Every structure is written in C-alpha cells, then in structure tokens.
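Write out the bound-state structure for calcium ion.
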Amino acid sequence: MKRNLQTLLIALTLASPTAIRAAASAKPNIVFILADDAGIGDFSAYGCKYGSTPNIDRLATDGMKFTRAYSGSAVCAPSRNVLMTGQHTGHVLRRANQSKVGLLALPPEQMTVARLLHDAGYATGGFGKWGLGNPGTTGVAEKQGFDVFFGYYDQKHAHDYYTDHLVRNSDDVPYQQSGKHTWEDYSHTRIANETLKFIEQNKGRPFFCYAAWTPPHGDYVIPENPVFGQKPWSDEVRSYAAMVGLVDRDVGRVMHKLKDLGIDEKTLVIFSSDNGANEQFIEPLGSTGGLRGYKRMLYEGGTRTPFIARWPGKIKPGSTSDVLTTFMDFLPTAADVIGQPAPSGLDGISFLPTLLGKPQSAQHQALYFEIYEPFFQQAARMGDWKGYRLGTKAPLELYDLKTDPAEKQNIAAAHPDIVQQIEAIMAKEHTPSPNYDAPEQDNKGTKRPKSESR
Ligand SMILES: [Ca+2]
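---
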C-alpha cells in the first residue's frame, strides 16, 4: 500500500500537467464576482431602499451573508491589490490609484491568489478591470497567475463603456462601435459573455474565475433603462441604479451557467464590491447604507462592503457571519479551500472555518487600513472600536460601532486607553512607502475627498 502510494506520488511528480489537473479535480471551482464602486446600500440583501437585487439575494439565501465585511480599501487599485495579494494597505504596493512616480505595477514575483491557484492546477481567468499593471509592465494579469485576462487593464480606459477596443492578455481587441450605444456596443456585454464562456470552457477542471466587472463605476451609462428611466433623478443616478441591476442580472446568468453545466455544487461563489459608493448616490439612493463617508474615505461608508458566499453542501443556506474580514483574507481562504498552507508574509486569515460553520479560532485582533488619496488617512477596527485619523498629525477619532455605526460621536476623550491601543496598531501596521508622501494635516475636516474618480 505504502509502495503504491509512493509510486503514485512519483507518477504524479513526473506526470503531465493534464494528470496533475486530473488529480486536482476534487478541488472546488472558485468564482469571485466583484462589482466596482457599488455601496452596501445598493443591494437588497443589505437593505437597499430603491430597488431589489434578487439574484444576489439568492446567493445569500443559498449561502452565507457577512455582516461585518470590508473591502481592501476605499478606492479601486489598492482594494484589488489587497484582494490579489492577501496583504493590507499598510503593506501593499498600491495605496492609492496614483502615486508620485506614476502608475505602479505589481512586481514579477508577487504572490497572488491567481498564481497560487494556477500553480495548484486551476484554470485562471479574469474578466473586467485589472488596474494593477498596464501592458508592457510586470504587473499585467497574465504575468500574475492568470491564464487569460479580458477587459480593461487601465482604470481610466474602464470609464469608457463604448470603447473601440478591449484588451486580452495585453493585446488590443478591436471593438467596432455602431455609434448607437446598443447592448452590442456596451463593453460589459462582451465582458460578461467572456466570463460565461470561460466557465463553460473549463467546466471539466478546477477553475478560478475573477469577474471584476466594471458596473456601476462611471461613466454612468447604460443602453436601456426600463426600471429607473422615469425616476425623478439625474441621468447619472438613473444610470447608476440600472447598472447595479445589471450586475445583479449577470450574477444570475453566472449562476444559471453553473447550474446548466451541473457544476454549481462544486463551486464556491463569492460576491462583493471593491469600495464604497460615491457621494452623489447617498442622497437619492442611500447607497452607503446610512454609514458615514463614501468612496475614498476610511469611514465605514468607504470600506464596508456586501460580502456573500455560496457553496452548496459546505455553507449552511441562509446563514450569516459577523466575523471581521477584509479582502486580505481571500488569498489565505483560497489556499485553505484547496488544502494548501497559506504562503508566508500575508496579513489575511482564512475564513474557511466560518464558511463551514466551524469555530473561527484564528481571528483578527484588529483590521488596519491606510490610503493616500486624496489625503492620507488611517483607520483601524478593534472589536467594535473604530479609530480614524485624517493626516499624520490629527488626533485620533474614536467611535463605538456597536452603539454608533454611523460614526457620529467621537468619544476619544473618554477612552484614552483605547486611543492608545489603536494608535499603537496604526504605528505597527503602517510601513512607509517610497511611492507616496503622507501629508501632515490637522483634522479640521474642511477638505473633503472629491467623489469623482479615476
Ligand atoms: Ca472601485
């Protein structure tokens, strides 16, 4: 028996990639669907006030809804950097969309969740917006563990939903426009179709599908808007609401595809959004769910995110979890799902025990965030305590999220011991970056981040 096992191991070691893939076939598929700039208040599973997102609701009734989940950051590129690398924003390369030395690209040997899964025999595909390295750099998706990436590499390019080209593995794919702004012309149509095609093509082997779709990020345009077209809102608000609906519709298409192929039972599907909503959608839509702040701010409205996981037979249907988690936990969780130890140097912790309904013995003592856009901010959550600081010189603001989820009452003066603990966390978790200058600012709060975005 032992000898047979040894023979098998030797055979596998020498085997072709196909044989290794066959051995890995018990591994579940992983689909991560990432909306862009959608707030927690845009989804009916989290109390949306203006519409419903039934397909995403169904993920929650079939699976687990996280009630205290955070994205990686309050803007696109750092959030995706955290998601891909399992490190928080005190450690990652991208701590803002821009830097003082231009767009930063992931380095060649960067550990990413795509690389981890690819090396374990997974087919790896990304569809939508990449943002961690433009063509010609070391950061392109196909050098970071993806077999294929289709969509936008450059974040500014991703604003153009009626573009004349998309990009596949760094090559331009021309995109003929009719000039009439039809569904055929709309880039997300093609990106969603490519997502489904990848799933279909890889149905017979484990795959990782990273659906980093661009809606509802601006430009706020959509070919048709039958549901919200007559609402007394601005054109941008009407389009944004419809774009959230589009994300929901295509979550439904992904689920249909998985079921049609008979593989939904062996697929872990996660849905989330990369950062909080823009300021302009708070008043008409309540997109930040009543939380303080919005995109670009480390108050709750900038980073609290919808996070839902579905995995039949593994995750209890209709369950919820209040475990504190951010995108940094995705990589170690993926490693855990495929039975591998997490790579070293991560900040994240696997939440697989939570998914499986087991005690989450390893938990974060605190979550840490920093951002250099438009101003340097730091935030840390320790249990129900939330510390926030604008600039490097400002006194820490302290909130008790249990009694004050909207961060209205700064109670720092009453809790100097907690302030001290959170300041120590910020000092420990922040590593200086040569790519950014942290502005020293007081906390008079006169300057507010602009909502318009890169
Ligand atoms: Ca975003």
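---
The chain has a mean pLDDT of 93.
The domain at 28-355 is CATH 3.40.720.10 (Alkaline Phosphatase, subunit A).
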